[in-house]
Amino acid sequence: MTKTVQYDPKRLQDLFEAAAILRNGGCVAFPTETVFGLGVDATNVVAVQRAFEAKGRPSDNPLIVHLHSPNQMKLYCHSVPEIAHRFIEHFCPGPLTIVLPRRDSIVNLVTAGLDTVAIRFPKHEVAQALLREANLPIAAPSANLSGRPSATTWQAVVDDLGGRIDGVLCGEPCDIGIESTVIDVTREHPTVLRCGGVTLEQLREVAPNVMMHDSQIDSSVNSPGLRHRHYQPAARVVLIDSSPELRRILNAFDHHVRLAYIGIDRLPNSIESKFERFRYCDNEADYASCLFSFFRECDHLGIETILCQGVDATGIGRALMDRIGRASGD
């Protein structure tokens, strides 16, 4: 097991070293505006295999390729339809991933053998600097063990992947806190495969015919996060909708169970003392930004059950409810 070097992204020499590791087939985690990514050269099959092995990630789960400029797309995509250019103009750089027809320059393992590739242009300045310096297409799944909550701090990356990867570019916690939205523009209508930092409502302002993927009807997997176990802490996650339901659920628990709560509404004073940890969020965006870090905090404390307040599945709330649903096993 090798040591994972913690690099300071404010030091140019550290940035240069991290980029050199990527060019030499290594694995480096780095911050984005959504979550930390585990970066590897998307044209190097051995490097990509290392990322899958480090995470324990199933090989049928495709990766997102990160680029620093739309000018690079012609190197890795056969074609870029006009609607993709419109989405890029409105939302990139930012938390939007676009599925496009792929070229063979991207290795098959990145795309899980599909004829499409998922492309993203991160907005985070550290991610942009690393991509420019490495001058590579960087395949970057979330920098965590497969199935665990995504890492939104560099400390969480080290907790999960320390000794499994070559380095991590440190920095502040990620702003958005949940993954990018994935939209497939190779279909008859642009189709959202995964909700994330760009909302369905925002996408429909650009293209009113944007559709939502229905996994019960369409089982194709052009996007990560659709088939396998995701986002789950060690604690049991329970979704609740109202205070009366909260009281009913609490009555069903043994009083020795270690409980935590996260939501927008404050707990009634009469039952707040039953919770060992709680987090009150200002709004849905704040809720999304701290969900995964709260899950990890609860795991460190040995919390057994986390109660998560449900929100309306609109705007960023749609992505938030998706992540809570998957964490709870639906």
Describe how the helices and strands are arranged.
Elements: E1 5-7, H1 12-23, E2 28-30, E3 37-41, H2 45-55, E4 64-66, H3 73-76, H4 82-91, E5 96-101, H5 108-111, E6 116-120, H6 125-134, E7 138-139, H7 154-161, E8 167-169, E9 181-184, E10 191-194, H8 200-206, E11 211-212, E12 236-240, H9 243-252, E13 259-263, H10 269-272, E14 277-280, H11 284-301, E15 305-309, H12 316-327
Parallel strand pairs: 1-8, 2-8, 4-6, 5-9, 10-11, 12-15, 13-14, 13-15
Antiparallel strand pairs: 2-3, 3-7, 4-7, 5-6, 9-10
Helix pairs in contact: 1-6, 11-12
Key words describing this protein structure:
DHBP synthase, globular, 330 residues, four-stranded parallel beta sheet
Top-tier CATH class of the largest domain:
Alpha Beta
Which whole number gives the mean pLDDT?
A: 92
CATH topology of the largest domain: DHBP synthase
What is the N-to-C order of secondary-structure elements (H for helix, E for strand)?
EHEEHEHHEHEHEHEEEHEEHEHEHEH
Give the number of helices.
12
Main sheet: strands, sense, barrel: 11 strands, mixed
**CATH architectural category of the largest domain:** Alpha-Beta Complex
Uncertain stretches of 5 or more adjacent residues: none
Can you put this structure into words, describing what you see?
This protein is α/β, with parallel strands linked by helices and about 325 residues long. It has 2 domains: about 5-210, DHBP synthase (Alpha-Beta Complex), CATH 3.90.870.10; about 235-325, 3-Layer(aba) Sandwich (Rossmann fold), CATH 3.40.50.11030. It contains 12 helices and 15 strands. The strands form 2 sheets. An 11-stranded mixed sheet has the order 1-8-2-3-7-4-6-5-9-10-11, with helices on both faces. A 4-stranded parallel sheet has the order 12-15-13-14, sandwiched between helices. Strand 9 and strand 10 form a beta hairpin. Helix 1 (about 10-25) packs across helix 6 (about 125-135) and helix 11 (about 285-300) packs parallel to helix 12. About 50% of the residues are buried.
